[in-house]
Write a structure and sequence with these properties.
It is a single chain. The chain is α+β, with helices and mostly antiparallel strands and 366 residues long. The chain has a domain of 180 residues. It is built from eleven helices and 16 strands. The protein has a five-stranded antiparallel sheet. It has a three-stranded antiparallel sheet with strand order 3-10-16. It is globular, with a radius of gyration of 23 Å.
Length: 366
């Protein structure tokens, strides 16, 4: 078990149901906490009376009332989390309609998180006409021209799971990809620059976690001791930022998605219909330039900062769950050792040769 996971295990105590009044900043917060405990008792009685059976949404509520890890977070954090969850529970289907995500595991996960966040927004009374538009505005963007761009681009195409990749960009660049196999490989730090929009911009060399510490917060503790270090508790969590050295990153998407052309401000997409062949060509091309570096390819793991403990060796493949709807596939180029001497990383291009025999270009114009 790595050190971060050990910290998380220390904090993973069974939730205690009693706390002193001094732990609450307002009467509303204290009343909400007491209401959580009342509902918890009611649901536990209902479960006992029904052979330990509850409807799924009530199972989720019981679990959250027992361990309300967001309870002491500020309203701004809760609203942002609501927006992130809301934005990941739907997709746009071939009929240009909004529908729940088709991935059963993702749908169940995000519906559970949505149930939890609604419990938080309800007692706070913050999901109102002032805050809700921030979560729904991006949805309106898809339909501003009538039929969403992604529906015009992909039509009735059905994705081939596990075999296709999709690369979004402007038409002139996508055509160059098809004709010459020309692709830009950028360092991870490039995506923190201000010239990218919200769907692309991210701190790719930092992973932000918020380890649950609500029991300690209710007990009046302000920090925990771990291996001689004091880790401060803030709002019922321990903020933990893990820095990663810079690396090269090439991103595609592992599925067709009718939202992404709008999000990526793309007018075209390259559908790669042989993932294994493409990755092999890319690996050979980048290792020609960086022979002593390591190349890794795979689907991104989308982590929840509150519910996932980081696995240090693979954090380049981790991304905040707010981007989950993008279904990203990554090719990484990393130094084999952190002691390897290297200056600032700069973008570079590779050319794989013509890709017409296993790739297709689709356009989004009317």
């Amino acid at each position: 078990m790595n050190e971060v996971a050990r910290i998380k295990s220390i904090l993973d105590f069974k939730y205690q149901r009693f706390a002193s009044e001094s732990m609450f900043s307002t009467a509303k917060q204290k009343n909400a906490f007491e209401w959580f405990q009342t509902r918890l008792k009611e649901l536990e009685k209902e479960a006992r009376d029904n052979g330990d059976q509850l409807e799924r949404h009530d199972l989720w509520r019981r679990q959250y009332y027992k361990y309300p890890y967001l309870f002491f977070e500020d309203d701004y954090t809760v609203i942002n989390r609501f927006s992130d969850i809301f934005f990941n529970i739907f997709e746009i289907n071939r009929e240009s309609k909004i529908s729940p995500r088709t991935s059963l595991s993702s749908r169940i996960l995000f519906f559970q998180l949505f149930t939890e966040i609604i419990e938080e927004t309800n007692w706070r009374l913050i999901l109102n006409s002032e805050n809700a538009p921030s979560a729904t505005f991006r949805i309106k963007e898809y339909f501003k021209d009538g039929i969403p761009l992604g529906c015009r681009m992909f039509g009735n195409r059905e994705h081939i799971p596990g075999n296709w990749l999709v690369k979004y960009s402007k038409s002139e660049f996508v055509r160059d990809m098809l004709r010459n196999g020309r692709f830009k490989i950028s360092p991870a730090t490039e995506y923190a620059k201000g010239n990218y929009n919200r769907a692309i911009s991210d701190l790719e060399t930092t992973r932000h976690f918020r380890l649950k510490a609500i029991k300690e917060r209710l007990d009046g503790e302000t920090a925990i001791e771990f291996q001689g270090n004091s880790m401060p508790i803030s709002n019922g969590v321990i903020p933990l930022d893990i820095e990663i050295g810079d690396y090269y990153l090439f991103s595609t998407c592992s599925e067709i998605d009718r939202r992404l052309p709008t999000d990526f401000e793309a007018t075209s997409a390259l559908i790669i219909k042989d993932r294994k062949r493409f990755v092999s060509l890319l690996r050979a091309a980048v290792l020609t330039k960086f022979a002593n570096w390591s190349f890794t390819a795979g689907d991104v793991f989308y982590f929840d900062p509150y519910n996932d403990a980081p696995v240090i060796p693979e954090l380049e493949m981790w991304k905040n769950f707010s981007f989950s709807y993008q279904k990203e596939h990554r090719c990484l180029l990393r130094r084999k050792s952190v002691t390897d001497a290297v200056g600032q990383l700069e973008p570079f291009f590779v050319e794989l040769g013509p890709l017409m025999d296993f790739c297709e270009v689709v356009e989004g114009e009317f």
